[in-house]
Amino acid sequence: MADYQRLQHQISLYQANAPLEDYYEEGYAVLRQCTAEALAVLTADYDTGLLQVPTAPEQQTMQQLQRVLLDASARRFQAQKIYLRAVAATRWVNTRNAILQLQRSHAGHAAALQQADINLRSEISTITDERVVNELRMADWQARHWLQEDPSLQAMLHWICSQR
Q1: Is residue 99 within 8 Å of 116, Cβ to Cβ?
Q2: Which of 53, 57, 82, 136 has its CA 20 to 30 A from that of 101?
């Protein structure tokens, strides 16, 4: 839970305050998308609709706990993925600002700006579902958290799709 709260806080710090002429540039678009996605994850209701009817009170409690764990794990996964993309886009903004040095873009900047765009796309392409879940599991393992009950990547992806 603390990881999720920290991620949401950090994502909220990344703002896409683009100059008007740069509003549609790729990195700023990624930051706006990250902000919108983070807000959607944060405001999504907890959905109890997928619970099966239990036959015993113990089963009901177990199902509820599994559902809470799935919900929390999927939200943390989504937030981590959004955060990594926001960091990549912020790196792009910083690179762009260093190239432009408070000047307007001109032909002399074209090659360097194009390379910054290529680097952003490349970095974002490395942010796969598998990478994100492996990084989260590694962090949990290093913190000595219990991992046996964690939902699989497929279960989290299914949950995420069912929430749309």
Answers
A1: yes
A2: 82
